[in-house]
Amino acid sequence: MQKIKAIVIDNDHLKLKQPISLPSGKEIELILLETEALSESGWLNLSLSGLSKAYSDQEPVYNISMVKEKNPDYKS
Predict the structure, then answer these.
(1) Terminus of the chain with fewer CB atoms < 10 Å: N or C?
(2) How far apart are the C-alpha atoms of 51 and 31, rounded to whole Å?
C-alpha cells in the first residue's frame, strides 16, 4: 500500500504530487481524506467503516460455554 498525495484538478482528474509505479490500466481503490484535520466524529466514522469491513452480520455468536481453555490472566 502506498500513501500518495494529489491535487484535485476537476471532478474527473487528480494531479499526483509524486509518480507511482503502476502499469497503465491498472485498477486501484482510493480512500479520500482531506488534508484538513478530521474532526473527532470524522475519525470515529472512519474507524467504524473499517470495523464494518472486518466483521459482517454473518459472524457467528460465541458464548462462554464454547470456551475450551480459559485464559488465567483474564479477570471478568
Answers:
(1) N
(2) 15
Secondary structure element (H or E) that encloses residue 8, with its range? strand 6-10
> What is the DSSP secondary structure assignment for residue 14, as one 8-state letter?
E
Q: Name the pLDDT band for 13 (thresholds 50, 70, 90).
A: very high
The torsion angles phi and psi of 8, rounded to 5 degrees, stand at -75, 120
Q: How many CA atoms lie within 13 A of 58 on its CB side?
A: 1
Kindly report the pTM of this predicted structure: 0.40
Residue 35, C-beta contacts closer than 8 angstroms, at least 6 positions apart: 5
- Under DSSP, the state recorded for 56 is -
